[in-house]
Design a protein that fits this description.
By secondary structure, the chain is mainly α. It has 2 domains: 47 residues; 35 residues, no CATH class. 2% of the residues are buried.
Length: 83
């Protein structure tokens, strides 16, 4: 059974990359969860340049385009229900 990320178990002291694939996946999930907190984004985003914003959006949308099917994109990212 594939495990799923639980933000309640997010422990920054457990973030570690380079040990093995499972640890990298767990660490990336925790890192992205911590990165997307409103308190951090409210400080970080106004300090980003226009290029920073465009590069970040391009990178993230590129990842989704490479790894998600269209229906997954609509369901998981846009939270659209199937009509």
């Amino acid at each position: 059974m594939k495990k799923t990320f639980n933000p309640e178990n997010c422990d920054p002291s457990q973030i570690c990359f380079g040990l093995d694939r499972e640890s990298d996946e767990d660490s990336l999930a925790a890192f992205l969860h911590m990165f997307s907190t409103p308190s951090l984004l409210n400080v970080l985003i106004p300090r980003m340049s226009d290029d920073d914003i465009h590069m970040t959006v391009d990178f993230l949308t590129g990842l989704m385009k490479r790894h998600l099917q269209e229906d997954e994109y609509h369901r998981l990212f846009l939270n659209e229900e199937k009509s």
